[in-house]
Amino acid sequence: MNLKQASVKKVLATSENLQILRVRIDESYCDCLDKVVTAYNYLQLNTCVSPGQSVLVNTTGIDLELGTGGFAFVVPNQYYEGKASYGHVIKLRYTPLQLVVDSVEEQESSFHELLQNAQSIEGMPVVCCELHSQMPLIAAALKHQAPKAHVAYIMDDSAALPLAFSKLVQQSLEAELVDTSISSGHAFGGQYEAVNLHSALLSAHLVCKADVAIVAPGPGSVGTGTALGHSSVAQGEALNAVNALGGRAIAALRLSWQDARNRHQGISHHSQTVLRQICLAPVSAPIAANLSPCKLEQIEKKLSLLQTQKGHDVSLVEASYCDIDLRGVEVTTMGRTRFDDPEFFNTTFAAGVLAAEMIA
Predict the structure, then answer these.
(1) What span, in angstroms and rounded, lies between the C-alpha atoms of 128 and 337?
(2) Neighbouring residues of 190: CB distance < 8 A, sequence distance ≥ 6
(3) How confident is the model at residue 303 (pLDDT cuts 50, 70, 90)?
(4) Max alpha carbon distance in the chain (Å)?
(5) Which residues, at least 6 apart from 318, have a Cβ–Cβ distance to it below 8 Å?
(6) What are the distances in angstroms from CA 5 to CA 44, 56, 106?
(7) Conformational region of residue 81, where left means phi above 0, alpha means psi within -120 to 50, and beta covers everything else
């Protein structure tokens, strides 16, 4: 963990749970790659800061030159007191950053009685994603097909933990692609806080009255090039949770022919692992119907065995990036736009279209 003293040069933006800053790293830290960097200050963990103020920042991601870690993070000061009004559930437990939240389940919550004996989401469709960038695409496809549908986004804790870090979530809420946000497990900062993914799903159904839920990690998924050493395993765990609660589980597949890494060519080995090894019950796995015959044959060949062995419902769904309005939300995957990687976007859209068909 790399900690450095810095001074705040400018406040770029402030929202309810986040300040985005430009800070200058102290000259004594000669190993810093860039003296002036962007820093995130999470207001559930810290007080607001002002230009000229001295802060301590964590620059580990910058120093390691991580693709998704090119930011500094302000370390909380000793004077901050938490915001929770009645909460006693702690997230980031037993770390110096542990914080108290008002969780939907706890006894003082107005939703406690509603959730006390709840064990089913009663057939609610739930789309489970591998990547954070899939979330707004699925939401847009849902709203395109079913404009009045109430869409809840559940952020799990397999990647970034502060929901405020995601620009896509904020933009999706503002564009009304997503109606409600829930942070589950040790993720925090959603409109509702849940102790785990199962209770987050129950909350989406009973508290938020959602027609459809989308489960996706925050930004910053981890991959190691090994069979199971990647964040995508959480997608399979989410699909299992949906099935355990009586929902209709839909897997958003990761398809691309633009990724330079062989393991992600066609249908990613992450998606194959989830369907083959992690899922304990059948799920729906839609594919965009407008794939070229050659690519479609390649994918169907890989999925046909899984369909036979595991009972997954692999179906073709009409979905095109030309038709679906993202309402100004700018989405890329690994830096690629819908025009650069149409198969990824179309197959992700297909999962949202299928969910809309289920509620129809």
Answers:
(1) 21
(2) 153, 154, 155, 163, 181, 182, 183
(3) confident
(4) 63
(5) 288, 289, 290, 350, 353
(6) 21, 5, 39
(7) beta
Name which residue leads in pLDDT, 174 or 223.
174
CA distances from 292 to 109, 186, 266, 304, 313 (A): 52, 41, 12, 18, 21
Q: What are phi and psi of 325, to 5 degrees?
A: -90, 120
Average confidence (pLDDT) over 311-337: 90
Calpha distance 233→130 (Å, rounded): 8
Tell me phi and psi for residue 135, to 5 degrees. Answer: -60, -55
Q: Identity (one letter) of the amino acid at 357?
A: E
Quick one: tokens of 339? 């025009």
Q: Choose among 231, 91, 229, 226: nearest CA to 163.
A: 91
Query: CA nearest 310: which of 347, 284, 348?
Result: 284
Alpha carbons 135 and 352: distance in angstroms, whole number: 9
Q: Is residue 267 a contact partner of residue 254, using CB atoms and an 8 Å limit?
A: yes
pTM over 0.90: yes
Radius of gyration of the chain (CA): 21
User: Quick one: average pLDDT of 253-281?
Assistant: 85
Handedness of CA 109, 110, 113, 114 (dihedral sign): negative
- Residue pair 357/125 in contact by the 8 Å Cβ criterion: no
